[in-house]
Amino acid sequence: MTQKIRPSQFITTYGPGSIIELPDGPVLIPLGDEGLFLENNPYGLKVSDFAINDQRMSKGVLKEAKIFRLPTNSELGLENDATIYRTKKFPEWNLCLNSDYHPTRTDILYNFKERGQSACPICRVIPDTSRLLKGSAIRFVSVCKNGHLDDVPWYDLIHHGTTCSETNSVINELKNKNSLLWKTSAGTGLRYTEIECPRCGKSENLGSLYSREINCTARFPETEGLKEPPSRKFDCSVKANIMQRQAANIRIPEIKTLLSVQSVMMDLNSQLQNPSIVAAIKITLKSIDPEWKIHKTKITTQEQLDDFFDNMETLDVAPKIIKKFKDESLEALVQLMDDFNKPIPVGYHDLILDEFNELRKASIYGAPPSAHQSKSKILFKAEKGKRFVIGKNTFVVTPISKLQTISVQTGFKRDDTGDDLLQSDSELVKTSFFDDAGTEWYPGVSYTGEGIFIRLDGDGVLSDILNGDDVKQWLKTHHEETTSGEVDYT
Ligand SMILES: [Zn+2]
Ligand SMILES: [Zn+2]
Ligand SMILES: [Zn+2]
């Protein structure tokens, strides 16, 4: 059974380490290698075929790691209900509610398998199962703020980590470590449920377990192979809590988004990351100026570009790609070459500032600038901004008819406190994986859309506003209301 997830939903809502509800029950989404790109995967998917090339994101945010997008059913020519991203059943403990058919007259909490499939140990031997309810995954899981997630260790919790005395005699079906009695009395709260071991009679109250800290198993289920057993290291520095698996704070994704806003941002731009093309440019530059690195020499003439085309041929760059370069105008190529070796701002904050500058430039000159002729795909297109006066202020409104964004899910946090405030000391767990060549890949999505950029006209506007009478009055009022008197607003 499958669930349709759009690539954007995968990045914004789900992603590796999330629990998703399928018609057959909840499953866990593993990292991209296990879920999609593992060797001998059914569709022969290779992560490099799904790369999103974005140098600013890779260098500025991801420490040189790369970005992959999700394949879609339609591009692989698959039926809509075919599974592409493989998942694993989670949690593994289930609840069977057929208490009328159980000799114990209780519900059964079980992690029992028959031929690899979860099955209630009692109901599985009942000949006519037509009137029986199917067991369903238990709604509780164990979570810690270091990002670990596991089944609740029900058996160990009931026995306080000791072995079962096995003093009670039980029916054959319950002679295993994977079946417990789920005894619910009248009432809907968790405290009306007792969980009992049928073999020794030890029991715990669910309500009391729920409010207690438990030992963390230090499991990252998203890193495990789909067929591998759970890997539990028991070396976590913090305690875990029992949570409902559908709680929103069980997995809070961390997403970084950048705009592709270079003035001549064309699809050729991404070719500047192709190692053979980089080599061809370097050879060309070296022939122009052996000390090109120091002098920041650029390729600027048609003659130099012809030399670059020849070098690409020598280095076996695909003829299709060479043609793309040759089809481009001299002006566009010179602007493109200007981007080569340009330092990329490091850190999210500087990248956002960089974007703001490009947007500001676009609102003045338009993007690409009007003189620019390009045959290749333009990823950022804006008209010059128009001025509007509202009250005392002039705004510049710039329509952006084409805009590409790149969003990457860099990781997630698990918050086990259960309160509404995000627990800031939760550890970030990365959602990347390493391929066989040691390259790190993060899941991402690229979007093409449109937008409006609005800014105040002129440079001094903001400081005029901030030093204006309105702000002074607001600060004065605020100051009078501040009882500490230690805040200096001058
Ligand atoms: Zn049953
Ligand atoms: Zn026991
Ligand atoms: Zn932990």
Q: Helix and strand layout, with pairings?
A:
Elements: H1 7-12, E1 19-22, E2 25-28, H2 32-37, E3 51-52, H3 55-60, E4 66-68, E5 88-89, E6 94-96, E7 107-110, E8 113-114, E9 117-118, E10 136-137, E11 140-143, E12 149-151, H4 154-158, E13 179-184, E14 193-196, E15 203-205, H5 206-210, E16 213-214, E17 240-244, E18 252-260, H6 275-288, H7 292-295, H8 302-314, H9 319-326, H10 330-339, H11 348-365, E19 381-382, E20 386-390, E21 393-413, E22 429-430, E23 433-434, E24 440-456, H12 461-466, H13 469-481
Parallel strand pairs: 4-24
Antiparallel strand pairs: 1-2, 2-5, 3-4, 6-7, 6-10, 7-13, 8-9, 11-12, 11-17, 13-14, 14-15, 16-17, 18-21, 19-21, 20-21, 21-22, 21-24, 23-24
Helix pairs in contact: 6-8
This protein binds zinc ion (3 copies).
How would you portray this structure in words?
The protein is of the alpha+beta class. 23% of the residues lie in helices and 23% in strands. Among the domains are: 151 residues, no CATH class; 118 residues, no CATH class; 32 residues, no CATH class. The chain is built from 13 helices and 24 strands. A hairpin with a 6-residue loop joins strand 14 and strand 15. Helix 6 packs across helix 8. It is elongated, with a radius of gyration of 30 Å. It starts with 6 loop residues before the first helix and ends in a 9-residue tail after the last helix. The mean pLDDT is 88. The site of one zinc ion (ZN) has 8 residues, from loops.
Entry keywords:
490 residues; nine-stranded mixed sheet; six-stranded antiparallel sheet; 23% helix; binds zinc ion
